[in-house]
């Protein structure tokens, strides 16, 4: 029972600390689940992010469900998701009530737009943390750079880059086996 209460507490805290998109949330997950509690590994987190990004639905909620399931089992995934969602839901509802009343003030809107810089920093830090563990050889770096160039220059959907990376990765494994 003590482990479940701690589990609930940790995922409520993760929900409250999770600002921004999945890349920013990855840092919070890493801190709470890998470093503090040692419930998962870096590889578990990367696997969860990968599966969540190629699957349907909200990426962060999918990652939390995957990790909760990994830590405690099926009901752990459900409980982790509920805890992760409920805390920020309450906060954002309160904030939206306040912003609705203050939206006419230019300084409030300017402050909100200024937050984008902080969000970009969180996104970049998390992206670099993930890249350190993924871009570990020349092959991965090459696939990453080709995918990045194709997405940026030719405006190709990222799903095609994921599909292409899967094909290239499978092809490489098949060639190595021969």
Nutshell version of this structure?
It is built from eight helices and no strands. The chain has 178 residues and is mainly α.
Oligomer: single chain
Order of helices and strands: HHHHHHHH
Tell me about the largest β-sheet.
none
Gyration radius, to the nearest Å?
19 Å
Number of helices: 8
What is the percentage of strand-forming residues?
Answer: under 5%
Number of strands: 0
The shape, in one word, is: globular
Euclidean distance between termini CA atoms: 51 Å
Class from secondary-structure proportions = mainly alpha
Average pLDDT rating: 86
Q: Helical percent range?
A: over 70%
Low-confidence stretches: none
Write out key terms for the chains shown.
178 residues; mainly alpha; globular; single chain; 8 helices
Structural account:
The protein is mainly alpha-helical and 178 residues long. It is built from eight helices and no strands. It has helices spanning 2-17, 22-36, 42-54, 59-72, 74-102, 106-134, 138-154, 158-177. α2 (22-36) crosses α6 (106-134). The longest helix is centred in the middle third of the chain and has 29 residues, at 74-102. It is globular. The mean pLDDT is 86.
Set out the fold topology.
Elements: H1 2-17, H2 22-36, H3 42-54, H4 59-72, H5 74-102, H6 106-134, H7 138-154, H8 158-177
Helix pairs in contact: 1-5, 2-6, 3-4, 4-5, 7-8
């Amino acid at each position: 029972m003590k482990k479940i209460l701690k589990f609930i507490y940790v995922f409520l805290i993760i929900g409250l600390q999770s600002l921004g998109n999945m890349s920013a949330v990855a840092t919070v997950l890493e801190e709470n689940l890998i470093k503090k509690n040692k419930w998962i590994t870096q590889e578990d987190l990367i696997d969860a992010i990968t599966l969540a990004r190629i699957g349907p639905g909200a990426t962060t909620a999918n990652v939390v469900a995957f990790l909760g399931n990994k830590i405690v089992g099926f009901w752990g995934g459900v409980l982790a998701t509920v805890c992760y969602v409920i805390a920020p839901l309450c906060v954002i509802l309160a904030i939206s009530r306040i912003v609705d009343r203050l939206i006419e003030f230019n300084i409030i809107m300017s402050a909100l737009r200024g937050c984008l810089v902080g969000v970009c920093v969180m996104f970049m830090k998390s992206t670099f943390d993930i890249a350190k563990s993924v871009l570990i050889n020349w092959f991965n770096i090459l696939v990453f750079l080709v995918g990045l160039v194709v997405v940026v220059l030719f405006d190709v959907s990222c799903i095609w880059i994921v599909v292409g990376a899967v094909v290239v990765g499978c092809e490489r494994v098949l060639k190595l086996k021969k």
